[in-house]
Amino acid sequence: MVHHPSPSLVHAPDVSAADLRRRLSITDHDLLLVRLYGSVIVHRLDEFVRHFYAWLELQPEFSHFFSDGERLSRVQRQQTEHWHDFFSGTLDDEYVARRRRIGDTHARIGLSLAAYLASVDVSLTILLDRMYDGRLEKQAYIDCQRAVTKMIHADTIVIVDAYTRMTQRTLTEQTRALMEMSTPVTQLWDSILVLPVVGIVDTPRANDIMTSSLRRIAETRAKVFIIDVSGVSVIDTAVANHILKVTHATRLMGCQSVLSGVSPIIARTMVELGIDVGSIETSATLRDALERAFRTIGVMVVPVPGTPTR
What we know:
By secondary structure, the chain is an alpha/beta fold. It folds into 2 domains: 8-177, Globins (Globin-like), CATH 1.10.490; 186-296, 2-Layer Sandwich (Transcription Regulator spoIIAA). 63% of the residues lie in helices and 9% in strands. The protein has 13 helices and 5 strands. Strands 1-2-3-4-5 form a 5-stranded mixed sheet, sandwiched between helices. Helix 3 crosses helix 9 (138-182). The relative contact order is 0.10.
């Protein structure tokens, strides 16, 4: 069964600077404190990078993402620029957009959220503990800690939100591709289409079958549409009703439907369920359905002399 990802997050508005200020109670004074703390440590960001990558080298992600020395140097430079940007103490939509690109990048390269969140915790420890030189008054230091933590939480919200959106978009595209592959409506002959249905038919897949079938009928002007259910694992009332809806819709478009691959077990099940299939043409095999389809469009298939036949 293919599950469709919820589109609610994908289509929800992006997090804005105003959202972050409201959610985290970030004030202009907090931003001033971020700039104040930045004046204490920003000239020592190379020290931060050394501490951070000493920790990162012990993590399983290091060899996967940073085995290339040139890439590692480039990422370290970008990280230094990241913290310069952070300690500028600016929280507007342009700043949020820059943080959103980080989340997109993390999702695109496949860095896990667990690894990112762990790095956030380590970064807080390095910035607020290891790199602090004690020059501020105690209360000022406490206030700076609180303000910097708020801003890091703001970054985390934006990056995780962007990461999740990118991941869901990718999942949606993959799901759509899988659904298209699971409903391969194929033109076997002029005016004849066939759809082999395999596996479980749930409501989302039934809707996709309906959409794909009607689109192909319109494109090809098909007169016969064969639905082969020999690969359907379970026939119940819901599945049967889904199939009935497809056949009724195709009839409205001037196309005759034939249900093939109806095994004795499927036939018995449908009878026991009391499902009315009197209006549907059925056949036990796909071959029988094809023969009926050829007769419907006025085509006679004859064997080539000397060719073995069954």
